[in-house]
Amino acid sequence: MANWQWFHRLGSPKWLLGKLDRWTPWLLFAGLLLFGAASVWGLAFVPPDYKQGNSFRIIYIHVPFAVVSLAAYYAMAIAGAVGLIWRMKVADMAMRSIAPVGAAFTALALVTGAIWGKPTWGAYWVWQDARLTSMLVLFFLYMGVLALYDAYRERSSGSRAAALVALVGTVNVPIIYKSVDWWSSLHQPASIKFTEASTIDAQMLQPLLLAIVGCYLLFAALVIAQLRVQIVLGENRSQWLGDHAVNRTA
To answer: Domain range holding 142?
Structure first.
């Protein structure tokens, strides 16, 4: 039973809120530092690509947001599943907190991808491209989770509906990842690979990996900030919340 103590603590808004206050500034600072350093490194010091010239440099913004938006969807779906199975309020709050951040990251990936596409393909958007279309579906799934969560008078009903959509939508994530291999696509294949050597040069890859790590930390900081808001809103009638606020200002 002791091995599961951490799991039960995560389900306690009171215990979790105290931890969130400590983690947020450190994650935000580390994320901004790493992402900023990687962006400057990639945008200013990496040599131009032999085919795309300087236009390829947008990968240091586009790719991190795209990668994290996919991982974020899985995290949201897991939170939804935990909420459905164990009826944990904090899991429902986590799902609600991840959705707007994931939607924002997906939107940034779509916009930066369109900016990259114009000089590369000659068009900002091509509906026939499977990756572009499936990424747009991902954005709509995030927005659907947000809409359903707040659409019901009883929050528990909205949480269940949103969790079901989140779980069903997970089938779209592998479609996004494998779309460039399964269908003819304007989008280039994955440059970073886990089962074989990456096709991107090491001096271009290093700042990109650093940017991805920084983006993950930024995502975590933003989700934690959102989760803190959700806990305060959900527990606004609890006595312990007032005591917590007094302790923070003391």
So the answer is: 24-244
> Quick one: which of 176, 69, 68, 62 has its CA closest to 116?
62
The single-letter DSSP state of residue 1 is: -
Distances (CA, A) of 249 to 114, 233, 246: 46, 19, 5
What single string gives the DSSP state of each residue in 37-60? HHHHIIIIISPPBTTTBGGGGGHH
Q: Flag whether 181 is in a domain.
A: yes
The pLDDT mean for the chain works out to 88
Question: Is residue 5 domain-resident?
Answer: no
Specify the residue for token string 């592998």.
174
95 DSSP assignment:
H
Separation CA 16–CA 120 (nearest Å): 46
If you search the block for the tokens 């790719």, which residue do you land on? 63
Q: What average pLDDT does this structure show over 25-52?
A: 94
Q: What is the pLDDT of residues 151-188, one digit of tens each?
A: 988 888 999 999 999 999 999 999 999 888 788 777 77
Give the pLDDT confidence score for residue 209 in this predicted structure.
Answer: 95
Question: Would you state the pLDDT for residue 79?
Answer: 96
